């Protein structure tokens, strides 16, 4: 009985990693420390990013159905926009992990994270991505003013945890919610919206806590 209680509270901790006590985040100072770094180009990647340690409080095993699902994207248009030109968009998570993925990389020459996303008439190219630091958004965007997004390592009781995670200003916890019936302009498929949780963020009913891990 006691052992069972200990084991189940231990499992709860393990699966609830994002809000795990004593888990600290430290920024990775340089692209050269990230997966698939090339000395000649000073670029790490390309890689996708994906849902990791996602916590579903209503599932019996606390796991999210979208654990491991990779990055996608959608473009945004201003209301009343006359132009067909693409100026900005945001990184999302695919609703089906077989969907086409959006790639990201760390550009060491410019010291920034970039995504391979459309602009103008729709041609794909590398654009800087950043976090829209606003309590109601927190999205990972391109083509807009934004705070830098960075790679982080997590430490548990001083020991590094495996993997690299996206964050900004030492925050690496994200909230994820379904776009429901909204589909991406790019592939006409629904997706999941990720928001970086900053201290002012209000967590919504339809959201799940997650980390965003760099694959590779
Ligand atoms: C969370 O768990 C509930 C209950 O099992 C399930 O219906 C829902 O699809 C899950 N959502 C995610 C994102 O895992
Ligand atoms: C983030 O953490 C690092 C080291 O842990 C610290 O030096 C830095 O000041 C922190 N940055 C912010 C914005 O809190």
Structural class based on helices, strands and sheet pairing = mainly beta
- Give me the number of helical elements: 1
Distance between the termini: 41 Å
Number of strands: 16
Q: How would you state the average pLDDT, rounded?
A: 89
List the uncertain runs: 1-18
Catalogue the ligands: 2-acetamido-2-deoxy-beta-D-glucopyranose
CA radius of gyration: 18 Å
Secondary-structure element order, N to C: HEEEEEEEEEEEEEEEE
Largest sheet: 13 strands, antiparallel
Which percent bin holds the helix content?
Answer: under 10%
Number of domains: 1
Report the sheet-strand fraction.
over 45%
In brief:
Keywords: Signal. Residues 1-16 form the signal peptide. This protein is mainly β and 216 residues long.
């Amino acid at each position: 009985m006691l052992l069972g209680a200990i084991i189940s509270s231990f499992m709860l901790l393990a699966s609830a990693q994002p809000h795990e006590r004593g888990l600290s985040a430290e920024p990775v100072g340089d692209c050269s420390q990230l997966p698939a770094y090339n000395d000649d180009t000073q670029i790490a990647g390309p890689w996708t990013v994906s849902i990791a340690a996602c916590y579903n409080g209503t599932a019996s095993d606390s796991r999210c159905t979208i654990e491991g699902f990779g990055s996608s994207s959608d473009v945004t248009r201003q209301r009343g926009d006359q132009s067909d030109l693409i100026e900005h968009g945001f990184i999302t998570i695919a609703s089906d992990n077989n969907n086409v993925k959006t790639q990201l990389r760390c550009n060491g020459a410019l010291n920034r994270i970039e995504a391979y996303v459309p602009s103008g008439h729709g041609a794909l190219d590398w654009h800087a991505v950043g976090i829209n630091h606003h309590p109601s958004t927190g999205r990972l965007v391109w083509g807009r003013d934004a705070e830098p997004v960075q790679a982080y390592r997590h430490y548990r009781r001083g020991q590094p945890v495996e993997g690299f995670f996206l964050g900004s200003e030492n925050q690496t916890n994200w909230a994820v919610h379904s776009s429901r019936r909204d589909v991406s302009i790019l592939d006409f498929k629904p997706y999941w919206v990720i928001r970086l949780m900053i201290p002012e963020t209000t967590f919504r009913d339809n959201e799940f806590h997650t980390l965003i891990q760099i694959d590779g």
